[in-house]
Structures are given as C-alpha cells and as structure tokens.
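Appendix C: a fully annotated inverse folding record. The material below is reproduced so that readers can follow the format used throughout the book. The structure is listed first as tokens, followed by the designed sequence.
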C-alpha cells in the first residue's frame, strides 16, 4: 500500500546527500538554536530539498520537520511527512560520520514509512508497513531482520547524549550485556534492525518525533521492538512533539530490560 510513498521518501533523502556533503567538506559555521542544539547550513539546505521534492509529489500532505516552523494545521491532516534533515548535528560538527537523514510518513498518527539515509556512505535503510525492512549499499538491496540473541547482548549508546539513567541500566543488566558500543543518531536502531546489535535505551526526554519516526518503522518491520518504557507504541503528529518518556529498542521483547 505504501510503496509509492516509500520510493518518494528514498528519492528525497538521496537528493539531499550532495548538499549535505558539500557543507560537511567545507569550513562551515555552526549556529545554536533556542533549545541549545546546533544547526548548520547543511540542515537548512537538506530540509529545503526534501520538503520541495515531497511537496511536489504529495501537495496535500503536511510536514513536521526539525528545521521549519511548525504549522499546527498538520494536526488536521491524516498524512504528515516527519523529517530530520541531519539527525546527529553534533556528529556532523565533529565530522565523525555518525549522522543521518530521517524521513517518515505518519498516517493517522502511526508511522508507516521510514527512510534513514547515511550521507557519508550512501547507505539507505528503508521500510514501510506491511512491506518489511531493507538495507541498500553500493546498489545492492537486502532484506533485513533482527536477530534472536537473548544473552551476550550488544548494546548501543549515544555518542553525545548518554544519560545516568541509561548507565544504571547497563550496570543492572551487565550479566546479559556482552559489549557496549557508541553510535550516532538513527544508526543505533538501524543496526538493531540489521541484526548487528540487540538493545538501545533512551530514558530521557531529549528526542522529538523526527528523531524516532523513520527508524521506528524500520525496526518494527524488521521484527524488532520500539516502545516507550511503559511498553506503549510511540504515535506521531502530536501536539507535543517531544518523546518525553524516552524509549527502548530491542530485537525481542525478552530483552526489554527494565
């Protein structure tokens, strides 16, 4: 049902790569927004490219993006594109490669299409409700699925945003955890969807809808778990765009460790 929108989202994300890398490879400046988060010209340019492309394809759909002013009229629309043009701006500024472009489509508050592009490598993770999850690199596309591991877990933590609450969980469940790795932005859930790791915590309110929508679709369609700590699903196109409760991502519900 969502193939057309999925292909459009992939194309929009890929179109944004050149502009992002042009800034990445230049002596760019960094602004600090009102919420104390960084933003660069790459964020703004990519936002424009993605919005223009998707609006031309689907003029009736609304938008919720990190770098554009929020229009409350989106709340009246069943279809909303949710976009983070550069997820992991701190990684971008640090030039560590750990940033992504996230594009999702929400239909009646459920994320149904998700695309995560890795601009530095050209990798693309993508999924849509009922279609499964996929990974594309160097022109080769493979279907991906979470693994079945229950012990010796690989846990992913944020490079810049790890919190004491999460560190306590690592210590509490150290008997089940084999290794802890740092990965930026949406790479953590995508790697879980790909079967390369099993668990990731975010037990604080530091993320918003555009940080999670795309990767949630990918994880869920890969057979994984992406829930609030109370085990409720994250829904989208909300009045309050903050993910205030945080979330837990894992390969199997048995690893939903709290």
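Designed amino acids, in order:
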């Amino acid at each position: 049902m969502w193939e057309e929108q999925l292909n459009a989202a992939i194309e929009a994300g890929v179109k944004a790569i050149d502009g992002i890398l042009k800034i990445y490879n230049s002596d760019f400046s960094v602004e600090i927004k009102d919420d104390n988060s960084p933003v660069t010209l790459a964020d703004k340019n990519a936002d424009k490219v993605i919005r223009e492309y998707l609006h031309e394809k689907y003029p009736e759909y609304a938008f919720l993006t990190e770098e554009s002013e929020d229009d409350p009229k989106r709340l009246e629309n069943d279809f909303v594109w949710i976009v983070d043009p550069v997820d992991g701006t701190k990684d971008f500024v640090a030039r560590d490669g750990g940033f992504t472009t996230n594009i999702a489509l929400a239909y009646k508050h459920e994320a149904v299409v998700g695309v995560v592009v890795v601009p530095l490598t050209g990798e693309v993770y993508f999924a849509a409700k009922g279609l499964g999850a996929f990974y594309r690199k160097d022109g080769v596309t493979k279907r991906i699925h979470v693994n079945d591991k229950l012990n010796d877990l690989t846990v992913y933590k944020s490079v810049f945003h790890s919190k004491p609450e999460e560190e306590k969980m690592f210590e509490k469940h150290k008997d089940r955890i084999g290794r802890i790795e740092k990965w930026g932005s949406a790479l953590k859930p995508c790697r879980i969807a790909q079967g390369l790791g099993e668990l990731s915590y975010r037990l604080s309110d530091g993320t918003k809808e555009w940080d999670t929508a795309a990767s949630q679709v990918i994880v869920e369609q890969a057979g994984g778990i992406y829930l609030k700590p109370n085990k409720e699903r994250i829904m989208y196109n909300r009045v309050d765009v903050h993910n205030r409760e945080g979330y837990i991502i894992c390969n199997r519900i048995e690893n939903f460790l709290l």
